Amino acid sequence: MHDFARLLKESWTLVEEDRERLSGHFYARLFLLDPGLRKLFPVEMTGQGNRILDAIVTATQVVGDPESFEEYLRSLGRDHRKYHVDAAHYETMGVALLDALRSIAGDGWNLEYDQAWRDAYAAITEKMLAGAAADENPPYWHAEVLTHERHGPDTAVLTVRALQHPLSWKAGQYVSVEVPRHLPRVWRTYSVANAPNDDNVLEFHVRTPAGAGWVSGALVRRTRPGDLIRVAAPMGSMTLDRDSTRDILCVAGGVGLAPVKALVEELTVGNRTRWVHVFYGARNCAELYGLAGLEELVAAHPWLSVTPACSDDPDFDGEQGDISDVVTRYGPWTAHDCYVSGSAPMVRATLRALAEDDVPPPHIRYDTFGNL
């Protein structure tokens, strides 16, 4: 297994700096092999169209990790049901992938690399197909938008109700969302911002930079109560460790509050022994859109504390500075279960701070909005 993982990582270095050409070759070859597959993808492929290729590449990185290998890939297979892919499609994608790798790697490619990727892809698709076959849920849920609240020009909090079938998730997980009225076949992941409930109601916190399009722009600017969206199967492992008795640290930046809020809501049922410390950061006070709701929870639950901070608001009457630095001032956190959610730079900085604090890596779970 060690040599197998080495071959995958070694061969990936030949193409990783040329992801755009790899992607272009992969999809050109894929649609040439099976033109009917084109209708499964967005009209505009830039960025959004690369999600299946990105998922395959990410999966090869976990093949050498037996603990995460099986469940990750089974959940990936469940999630990919939303694309309507079947065994024949996976086979065609495998041919296109190997062709793209060979073409982009050039003379550096060899038979050992080729066989390693063949074996990895076979193992990946076996687990993904098994996960898809075992899932009795629909490929996705139709959901009606119930409420839609704007917070400033670029943030919205909305609730939706999944229709027809029950949708089960764990606090801290995320789902893929499609807005078919505006962007058919384009999916984006969002953390669920509330704990599981019997009403099939999910809450999402969505932020989009000014002028941006895609799914976040549609959800913030063009979605209204009564609209229908689609929600795919829950994924993610930033969930509570129910066997742990350690106190809990949650660090949230911006709309990274969503999974943290869900975790806190879940803890409001039955928690009596674990102190929970939430650090919530944004650039300025106006962006702390969820602070009032957190303070209501603090008033009702003595085991909960919330520390807000602003990195660029000298008038804010609270902690100043990046949230990763604020967390460090309140440490040590060595004996805590730690949950971190936010932008990629914020998560990176917080993980570094926790590592310097000697928090054991198994006690840290995180969710990032972007690539680490």
TrEMBL record:
<comment type="similarity">
    <text>Belongs to the globin family.</text>
</comment>
<dbReference type="GO" id="GO:0008941">
    <property type="term" value="F:nitric oxide dioxygenase NAD(P)H activity"/>
</dbReference>
<keyword id="KW-0001">2Fe-2S</keyword>
<comment type="similarity">
    <text>In the C-terminal section; belongs to the flavoprotein pyridine nucleotide cytochrome reductase family.</text>
</comment>
<keyword id="KW-0520">NAD</keyword>
<dbReference type="Pfam" id="PF00042">
    <property type="entry name" value="Globin"/>
</dbReference>
<dbReference type="Pfam" id="PF00970">
    <property type="entry name" value="FAD_binding_6"/>
</dbReference>
<dbReference type="GO" id="GO:0005344">
    <property type="term" value="F:oxygen carrier activity"/>
</dbReference>
<dbReference type="InterPro" id="IPR012292">
    <property type="entry name" value="Globin/Proto"/>
</dbReference>
<feature type="domain" description="Globin">
    <location>
        <begin position="1"/>
        <end position="133"/>
    </location>
</feature>
<dbReference type="InterPro" id="IPR000971">
    <property type="entry name" value="Globin"/>
</dbReference>
<keyword id="KW-0813">Transport</keyword>
<keyword id="KW-0479">Metal-binding</keyword>
<protein>
    <recommendedName>
        <fullName>nitric oxide dioxygenase</fullName>
        <ecNumber>1.14.12.17</ecNumber>
    </recommendedName>
</protein>
<feature type="domain" description="FAD-binding FR-type">
    <location>
        <begin position="138"/>
        <end position="241"/>
    </location>
</feature>
<dbReference type="InterPro" id="IPR050415">
    <property type="entry name" value="MRET"/>
</dbReference>
<dbReference type="InterPro" id="IPR017938">
    <property type="entry name" value="Riboflavin_synthase-like_b-brl"/>
</dbReference>
<dbReference type="GO" id="GO:0020037">
    <property type="term" value="F:heme binding"/>
</dbReference>
<dbReference type="Pfam" id="PF00175">
    <property type="entry name" value="NAD_binding_1"/>
</dbReference>
<dbReference type="InterPro" id="IPR039261">
    <property type="entry name" value="FNR_nucleotide-bd"/>
</dbReference>
<keyword id="KW-0561">Oxygen transport</keyword>
<dbReference type="InterPro" id="IPR001433">
    <property type="entry name" value="OxRdtase_FAD/NAD-bd"/>
</dbReference>
<keyword id="KW-0349">Heme</keyword>
<keyword id="KW-0411">Iron-sulfur</keyword>
<dbReference type="InterPro" id="IPR008333">
    <property type="entry name" value="Cbr1-like_FAD-bd_dom"/>
</dbReference>
<dbReference type="InterPro" id="IPR017927">
    <property type="entry name" value="FAD-bd_FR_type"/>
</dbReference>
<dbReference type="GO" id="GO:0019825">
    <property type="term" value="F:oxygen binding"/>
</dbReference>
<dbReference type="GO" id="GO:0051537">
    <property type="term" value="F:2 iron, 2 sulfur cluster binding"/>
</dbReference>
<keyword id="KW-0408">Iron</keyword>
<dbReference type="InterPro" id="IPR009050">
    <property type="entry name" value="Globin-like_sf"/>
</dbReference>
<keyword id="KW-0521">NADP</keyword>
